[in-house]
Please model this.
Amino acid sequence: MRMIQMIAEVIARILGLIKDGDPEQANLLLENAYHDFLKKDASFFRNLPKEKLTVDLLTEHNYTNGHLKILSELFFAEGELNFVKDDMETSLNYYEKSLLLLEFSEESSNTFSLSSEAKINLLKEKIETLKCKI
Model:
């Protein structure tokens, strides 16, 4: 639970940097967050295809649902960062990965999270909006 709170603070800082027009600093913080929270370089996760995200990470790399939620948040931040860089296709890809992970972890969970449901709805809206623009 503490790890989720820490990632929320990091994501808030990343999103704040993006909003303040400092995507370079946001990207640096994002790169570090992958390693700090998931113990692998960002490129490892970025290169995983959508269809291998959940099964491969849970079985081959021993990640938990908590790790998947963290990765979902990092992918959301990636989507936001690419959106401000006007890279809509990459942004869409990260939003879709984020949604996939979040839905998977919520389906596997025994508890209902209103904030997760709100995030799922936000991601769906962003995905639909981007699909119309591309």
